[in-house]
């Protein structure tokens, strides 16, 4: 069981959308993501984290005929998590600067 970090989507000529997820298992392998196709169980073994985008696009085009408008987007909850963390970091930094001046 991994957490989906990113979604790659592409559309067929008929307008059907296919998705490949980038998942990561934070308990067992927190530094490596892996690809999982949401439609056919395609799950390639990845030796590096490079070229994930290329692999996802290639699979969507060759296996599902979805070669239009490839798109990459982040998982919504991860994006929100970062939006919450950033202001907290900013407040802590301002607080530190203030303390150092006094
Ligand atoms: Zn597939």
Would you mind describing this structure in some detail?
- With 102 residues, the protein is of the alpha+beta class.
- The protein has one domain (3-101).
- The protein has helices at residues 52-64, 76-101; strands spanning 3-11, 17-24, 33-37, 68-74.
- A 4-stranded antiparallel beta sheet has the order 3-2-1-4.
- Strand 2 and strand 3 form a beta hairpin.
- The chain starts with a strand and ends with a helix.
- The site of zinc ion has 7 residues, from helix 1.
- Biggest sheet: strands, sense, closure? 4 strands, antiparallel
Q: What is the overall silhouette?
A: elongated
Within the largest sheet, what's the order of strands?
3-2-1-4
Please indicate the percent range of residues in DSSP E strands (runs of 2 or more). Answer: 25-35%
Over the alpha carbons, how many angstroms does the gyration radius reach?
19 Å
* Class computed from helices, strands and strand pairing: alpha+beta
Give a concise summary.
With 102 residues, this protein is α+β, with helices and mostly antiparallel strands. The protein has two helices and four strands; from the N terminus they run βββαβα. A hairpin with a 5-residue loop joins strand 1 and strand 2 (17-24).
Descriptive terms for the model:
alpha+beta; 102 residues; 28% strand; 4-stranded antiparallel β-sheet; binds zinc ion
Question: How do the helices and strands line up, and which of them pair or pack?
Answer:
Elements lengths: L2 E9 L5 E8 L8 E5 L14 H13 L3 E7 L1 H26 L1
Antiparallel strand pairs: 1-2, 1-4, 2-3
The chain binds zinc ion.
